[in-house]
Amino acid sequence: MKEFARAFLRRPSGVLGLVILVAVVAAAASASLLYPHSPWDIVAAPFVPPGEEGLLLGSDSLGRDVAAGIVHGTRVSLMIGVASTAVALLIGVVVGAIAGYRGGRIGGALMGLTELFQSVPAFVLAILLVAILTPSIATITLAIALVSWPQVARLTRGEFLSLKEREFVQAARCQGESGFSLVVRYILPNALSPIVVAGSLSIATAILIESALSFMGLGDPNLMSWGYMVGTARTMIRQAWWMSFFPGTAILLTVLAINLVGESLNDVLNPRVVRE
Amino acid sequence: MNEAQAMDMTSDAIPRPLLQVRDLHIALPASGDRRFAVEGLSLDVPENEIVCLVGESGSGKSMTAHAILGLLPHRVRIEADSSIRCEGVELTQLSDAHQREWRGGRIGMVFQEPMSALNPLQRVGRQVAEALILHEPALPSSAVKARVIEALASVGLPDPAQACRAFPFQLSGGQRQRVMIAMALINKPRLLLADEPTTALDVTTQKQILELIKRLQAERRMGVMFITHDIGVVADIADRVVVLRHGKLVEAGSRDEVLLNPQQAYTRSLVEAMPGRQAARGKPASQGQAILAVEGLRKTFRSSGGLFSKAREVVAAENLNIEVARGQTLAVVGESGSGKSTLGRMIMRLIEPDGGRILFEGRDALSLRKDELARYRKDVQIVFQDPFASLNPRQKVGMAIARGPIVHGVPHREAMDQACALLERVGLGAKVANRYPHEFSGGQRQRISIARALALKPRLLIADEAVSALDVSIQAQILQMLGELKQELGLTMIFITHDLRVAGEIADEVIVMSRGRIVERGTPQAVLVSPQDAYTRQLVDSIAGASFLGRLSQPA
Which of B356, B315, B291 is nearest to B515 (CA)? Predict the structure, then answer.
């Protein structure tokens, strides 16, 4: 574990990503301390440019504080990103593991289902699901999870297919290990590194999908989110650039940070790279 | 022997050294486990002679070849006062452009893996031509074609024009190695470097390739530096021998000097570790009651044909009948594809046979219920070939050994204690139980695999090529340990191997398999000394160093 941390810290891009990510998480955790009032409160005149009237990032068309919106929006973005990825990993790993380990008719059926989901463009499917289920943070999380698990399932199945033929798995079978134990003790731990990496990248995708949904007006109406802020500001981009610029930058930085961390994880978890 | 002696000896015996290596130091990066891959090595390769560089893995023999070719990996470099001279030219001082001229031009090379050394997407003729065109760009294309065909003919490919048009996947391993040799020799080099060129091949193919290299060497009066770990191969092909260990020269001299009368203890141990030195056993062990009987076992692998491809069938077992008596060691010998590993896996029920019966202590192992199968697998255990693939990289070795007993109901503490005792018994010590597999060498991992198999107290142990991936001296140690354990625990053993020499040493009975059928069976003495079947005879004739073994066993 120590060796793992050291290898990770040797990668400048990973460290940069980690620093940004820690700042984002800190902002989300301290949102109610930094901006105790609701981000929906009107605190100033409309269209105050950044830096004036004590507003760091200016105000929007209704006089709401942009900085407060961004800080509170961090919670929504991270929540949806992490929760939807967790659900996607759960479904994807279970489906992929069964399809890869059992194979045969069950595996074929599961992969057919996976392909069915993949044959519809992910974003269109997400819009459809949210529109049918009425937008709320729970339905958005579910919708994003439902469009992201097929990739995880395919990856897991591929890893399982190659690992289950390996001699150490055969040896474990000869020792009398049950099928469940083979999967949990022998195959899964060795398939974990690519799954962890795919998961970290899928958090970034989830944040982008949520922003896009909110941009289209399909976000949770009770929660301030980055996508919603960019969406409402788009018609006023020439009068008040800061309204869309700062939330947009927040999305960009967070997604970039998660991608950097994900890529460094990929390198570090690959034993051949560590040994160099 | 010091350097001055080495030079003296070589200078009076050999008139014209083609390759002269003097005081070669190859420095490893600071993070390596030792400072030098090769330390102070001096050797000569004269023209018209084959010099064998012998050593175990990690001895620096391949590094030496790569240094000569200027192909050292990044961050590995030759120290300043080392000297490598070929035909009087100092190779260590050459520019990259000049090095390329030497590489493949005046120095030819053949590598170990014929499977990965050829570009799979290019026709063989083009790849051979490329080597020629690079060094003689002005040659007209008709002349190139003629030279390529001539080169392919010289390495004994039956239809050179046809071989030119073939893709690598259409050729067998031996044919690919012939193509590699043709490529290495097309520019008529004076010096050929061959790095374990036959290690990946079956014994019969190995013998053909060795004969080919020897014939071409004599025809062209080339100097050959031949790298190998197999003393048997050395005995067959070498004029002179250089023994390396940990990057240092141990002993050098003519073949007979070094092999028949080794001066250094290490060389002696290498020669003694050569399998087949002990005479094969003639008498069968007392025939006890059969512990395992295989009756009419059949298995055919079918690859389902696609839309345009025909389904392929490979027969792995055709009506196999085998009996193993309690306490006996049965060796199953065959080349790759003979079905010997499939047999082991069918007995373990890792592969389901198409038909036939497997009777273990009188009960049919093929009709067992799930819980009965678990108990059966406790009695019958297997040790796999590849020590790097057969241990779970994410599991501590103590746990790897203890898991079997734990699954079968032994309390956790007790199982761990047993695992420690077993680790002690296989010579690793109980302390290593908390380590992960990647911290061990190949031989140590194989000891762990054996301990894992023995943890369940099996009555029948299947060793599937259990020593094939190991250096000879390690191989000898593991074989000896297996023999002792077999005595102690009263094991019955099925030993699957491609190496007749190993089979002859340890087995009570030998079965020779070819294409899923048993072609011969008998005592090791009978099979090795007077083989009846043509295929067995061919295998026995192909044993590397057979004639030399004969000379060793004669009284001095």
Answer: B315
The residue with tokens 């130091």 is B25
Judged by CB atoms closer than 8 Å, whether chains meet at B407 and A176 is answered as yes
Rounded to an integer, what distance in angstroms lies between the CA atom of residue A151 and that of residue B169? 33
pLDDT band at B280 (very low <50, low <70, confident <90, very high): low
Burial of B257 (0-12, 13-18, 19+ CB in 10 A): middle
- Sort out which chain A residues have CB atoms less than 8 A from B456's CB and list them: 175-176
Tokens read off for A143: 């919708």
Chain B neighbors of A185, CB-CB under 8 A: 392, 395, 403
Which of B378, B438, B452 lies closest to A171 in CB terms? B452
Burial track A174-209 (b if 16+ CB lie within 10 A, e otherwise): bbbbeeeebbebbbbebbbbbbebbbbbbbbbbbbb
Closest CA to B7 of B26, B18, B22: B22
> Least CB-CB distance to A175: which of B386, B389, B407?
B407
Report the alpha-carbon distance of residue B28 to residue B12 in Å, rounded: 34
- Chain A CB within 8 Å of residue B384 CB: yes
Closest CA to B540 of B507, B501, B513: B501
What is the 8-class DSSP label of residue A30?
T
pLDDT digits (tens, 9 = 90+) for B529-552: 888 899 998 888 888 877 776 666
Residue written as token pair 């590397």: B544
Through-space distance between the first and last CA atoms of chain B, rounded to whole angstroms: 25
Question: Side chain identity at B447, as an amino acid letter?
Answer: R
DSSP states along B428-454 = S-GGGGGS-GGGS-HHHHHHHHHHHHH
Give the DSSP letter of residue A42.
B
Chain A residues touching residue B404 (CB < 8 angstroms): 175-176
Nearest to B393 among A170, A172, A190 (CB): A190
Q: Residue B370 and residue B358: Cα distance in Å, rounded? A: 16
Contacts of A135 (CB under 8 A, 6+ apart): A213, A218, A219, A220, A221
Tell me which amino acid residue A153 is: A
CB within 8 Å: A174 and B395: no
At residue B311, what are phi and psi to the nearest 5 degrees? -65, 140
Starting at the edge strand that comes first in sequence, how are the strands of the sheet with B355-360 ordered? B312-325, B290-303, B355-360, B363-364
Q: Which residues pair with A65 in a beta bridge?
A: A59
Search chain A and give the residue with CA nearest B74: A276
Mark out chain A residues that contact chain B at CB-CB < 8 A: 166-178, 181, 185-186, 189-190, 271
Q: How far is CA B24 from CA A100, B4, B13, B128, B365, in A?
A: 52, 14, 22, 32, 59
* Separation of alpha carbons B133 and B140, rounded Å: 9
In the block, which residue shows the tokens 């997604």? A255
What pTM value is reported for the model?
0.78
Q: Which residue in chain B is spatially nearest to A170 when comparing CA positions?
A: B350
Separate counts of helices (H) and strands (E) for chain B: 21, 21
**Beta-carbon separation of A175 and B389 below 8 A:** no
Alpha carbon of residue A178 to chain centroid: 34
pLDDT-based confidence at residue A192 (cuts at 50, 70, 90): confident
Nearest CA in chain A to B437: A168
Q: Give me the helix-helix angle, A226-233 and A242-269, nearest 10°.
A: 140
The pLDDT confidence band at residue A275, using thresholds 50, 70 and 90, is: very low
- Chain A to chain B, count of Cβ pairs less than 8 Å apart? 59
Asked if A170 and B395 come within 8 Å (Cβ–Cβ), the reply is no
Residue B54 contacts residue B241 (beta carbons within 8 Å): yes
Of A167, A175, A271, the CB nearest to B403: A175
